[in-house]
Specification:
Elements lengths: L2 E2 L2 H8 L8 H14 L7 E2 L3 H8 L3 H13 L3 E4 L3 E4 L4 H8 L18 H10 L1 H5 L10 H13 L15 H12 L14 H9 L3
Parallel strand pairs: 1-2
Antiparallel strand pairs: 3-4
Helix pairs in contact: 1-3, 2-4, 3-4, 9-10
Length: 208
């Protein structure tokens, strides 16, 4: 059974989608990015053209042309009376997204894991019983890890103590934490482009 995405949810997910002209292609690109990033799952019913146009405050014809562009690129299918539904990413599209020339793809926020990760996971699994006996949570992160990171900075010539290091659940958590501390509503924030899409989301939510 397919899921449905409301016009409000899609509007929030798109964020500052109007980055170029024509507007319908910018909208189509924004929805493609959400599909490639799996923030819109395959077989998700998109909002009706009129509903999305109202939510985005644009003309219905702009949404209609954006949906047509998405149909042409194979990202959605539409049936009269049934609406538009996102399609699974085809093999050719996956290959294009992943790339084979060593370049870094910025269309997805979920790149392949570091090649050495499997080996480290095996080491951790071997010590699972010991690790499971601990609480497993420290608001600043494990002392051993913080010290190892501090040592890494010291080796690069930057005097650092472990108490100056805080471990987060990931890059997104770190960006959100920094944004909430440093940014106030209405502040201007400059970021590079192309950029990490979730970073832009965190900055907007913080008021920048």
């Amino acid at each position: 059974m397919e899921s449905r995405m409301s016009a409000r949810s899609l509007t929030l997910a798109l964020g500052g989608w109007r980055t170029r002209e024509p507007a319908y292609e910018a909208l189509a690109d924004g929805i493609r990015l959400l599909c490639l990033d799996n923030r819109i799952a395959p077989r998700t019913a998109l909002p009706a053209e009129r509903e999305l146009a109202t939510a985005l405050r644009i003309s219905r014809s702009t949404v209609s042309m954006a949906y047509q562009s998405l149909r042409d690129s194979g990202h959605i299918s539409s049936l009269r009376g049934s609406g538009s539904v996102t399609l699974p990413l085809g093999r050719r599209e996956v290959a294009r997204v992943l790339g084979t020339d060593g370049t870094i793809d910025l269309q997805q926020a979920s790149p392949p894991a570091w090649p050495g990760l499997a080996g480290h996971m095996a080491e951790v699994a071997a010590d699972a019983a010991t690790l499971a006996s601990r609480s497993g949570y420290d608001v600043l992160g494990r002392a051993e890890l913080r010290e190892a990171i501090a040592e890494l900075f010291r080796a690069r010539g930057l005097p650092t103590e472990s108490r100056q290091i805080m471990i987060t659940a990931g890059a997104q958590s770190a960006i959100h934490l920094l944004a909430s501390v440093l940014i106030g509503r209405g502040d201007r924030v400059a970021i590079e482009t192309p950029t990490y899409p979730h970073a832009a989301d965190a900055l907007r939510r913080a008021g920048g």
